[in-house]
Amino acid sequence: MRIQVTGEALTDEINVTTGQQTRIVEVSAGLVSSVNGETGDITGLAREDDVPVLAGEAASAAVAEHVAAVDPHGDRAAAADDATAKVAAHVAAADPHGDRAYADSLVQVGVTDWINVRKAPYSATGDGTADDTAAIQAAINAAVATGSVVYIPAGTYRLTAALTLSADNIRIQGAGPGATVLEQSSTTANGITGTDRIRISLSDLTLSGPGTGTGTGLKLGLAAAEATPYVRLDNVTVATWGLDGIDIDTPIVSTFTSVIPVSNGRHGFNIHSTGSSTSCAFVACYANNNGQAGYNLLRLFYSNLSGCAADSNGCGYLLTNCSAVTLTGCGAEATVAKNGQDGTAYKIVSSEGVSLSGCSVSNNATTAIWLATAGAAHLIHGCIEQSTAGTPTAFVRVDPGVSATLMSHAHTTPNVLQGTVTQIGQGGGQLTVPGYLYVDSSIETSSNMLASGDLVALTAGRGLNIAEGTNARMGTATLAAGTRVVTTTAVTDGSRIFLTCQTPAGTPGWLRVSARTAGTSFTITSSSTTDTSTVAWLIVQPA
C-alpha cells in the first residue's frame, strides 16, 4: 500500500513490498483528493472486500471499534478453548506429571539401589488376581545380595505363601497403606516372616490377611539369636489375620510409628520375650477391633507408648511382667470382654514402675485401669474417665500386694483400692499416705491431715507446732480471783482440754475445766480463789 500526499513541501510514501497490492489514496492539503487517481465522489471507490469506507471518518470509527472490542482477533476464545481442553486432558491422564512412571522406573536414589518388583526380571503384576509370591520373593532375595530397597508400587499383590526375610538389613517400601496391598490368600501362611533378623524395615503398605486361619501379618521370631534389634515399622496397616497382626520376639531399640493392626483374630501387637524387650517406642499407633489385646506386651522394659489408641478390643493395653514402661496421652474406647479377655482398658499384671500419664478411657464397661496380681512403684497421673457403658466396677482397681501412687484424676466410677496406695489430689485435694510419710521440712495444710498410723518426729528438736490466736485450739489465759472464761469456737462437748500452769502468781492451786459451751467458750477454775497464775491450755479433738 502507498499513501501519496500532494500539495506539501515533501511527498511521503509508505510502500508495501509484500502481500496484495491495495488502492492508492492521495491526500492534498490534508484532504483526500483521489483514490487510484480518480476524483469526485469517492464513497464508492474506497472499498475493501465490499465494505464501504468513508474516508477519514470510517477509518477512525473502525479503529475505535477495533480497540474497544474484547477479542477483536478471536485469540482469547481460541486460547480458552485450548486451555479447557488441556485441563480436561490433564485431569483425565493417569500420570500427568510423569511421577508414577518415574517412581516405577527407579533404579537408584542417591547411593541406594531400589528394586522395583514390577520390573523385569521380577515382573509382579499387582492386579489382585495373579500369584505374585514368587516375583516379590525373588526381588527380596536380590535385595539381600545387593543391599537394595525393595520397592512395591501401588497395586494389590496376591500371595499364596509367606514372604521370607532370609537376611538382615532388608527394607521394603510401598506407595502407601491402602495403595500397596500384600494380600495373603492362604489361611495357614503368614504375610512376611523372618528368624534371627536385624534391621528390618517396612514402610507405607498394607499386609492383608484372609480373615481367618492361623496366619500372622508380620512374624519375626528367634531360633539362635537373643533379640530382634532395630525393627522399624512406619505407616503400615496389618489387617484381618487369623492370629496376630504383628508378632515380634524380643525387639530392642525398635520403633513403631503410625502402625494400625485392625480386626485380627488375637492380638494387634504381640510383643513378647523370655528375657526382655527394651527401648521400644510406639508412636501414634492404633489397634482397633482385635480379638484379644490391642497391645499385648510381655516383658517389655524401659519403653514408651505415646499418643496411641486402642478401640473395641478385648483388652486395650495388656502389660505383663513389664518394667519402667510409660504410656503418655494414650486412649482406649469401647473395650469389651471377649475371647477370654475381661474388657479392661489398661491392665498391668505383675509389673513394676509402669506409668500412665494423661490417659483417657471412653465407654468404660468394666474396669478402666487395673493394677493386678503383684507389682510396685506404679504411677497413675492425670487420667480421665470420659464416659461409661452399663455399670462398670471400677475406675482404678489396685489388687492386694500392689503399691501405686494415684494423682489428680477425673472419673465417675469409684476406685477399688486394696493394695498400698498413695493418693494425691483425690476427692478435694487430700493426701492419703499408707505407712510412713517422711518429710524433711514443714508440712502445711489448710484442711485435715488423716493418719492411720503414728505421727513420729524422728529428729530431736522437731515436733508439733500449733498456731495461737482467735478461736484457736491452744493458748494462754491469766486467772483473776482463781477463774477465767476462755472464748473459742474450737471447743466441743467432746473436746479434751489440757491445762498447765505457765507462770505462777498469787496463791496457785490445782486447775480444772469447770464449765463449757460448745462452739463458744470454756471456764478454767483454780482451787485457790487468790490464784492469779497464767495458765496454758490445749484442746485435742478425738478422731
From TrEMBL:
Q: Which residues form the Rhamnogalacturonase A/B/Epimerase-like pectate lyase domain?
A: 114-191
Q: Which residues form the Right handed beta helix domain?
A: 231-378
Q: Which InterPro entries match?
A: Beta_helix, K1-lyase_C, Pectin_lyas_fold, Pectin_lyase_fold/virulence, RHGA/B-epi-like_pectate_lyase
Task: Give the highest taxon in the source lineage.
Answer: Bacteria
Q: Which residues form the K1 capsule-specific polysaccharide lyase C-terminal domain?
A: 471-540
Going by the UniProt record, its keywords in alphabetical order are: Hydrolase
Q: GO molecular function of the protein, one example?
A: hydrolase activity
Q: Quote the Gene3D superfamilies the UniProt record gives.
A: Single-stranded right-handed beta-helix, Pectin lyase-like
Q: What is this protein called?
A: Glycosyl hydrolase family 28-related protein
Tell me which species this is from.
Streptomyces lancefieldiae
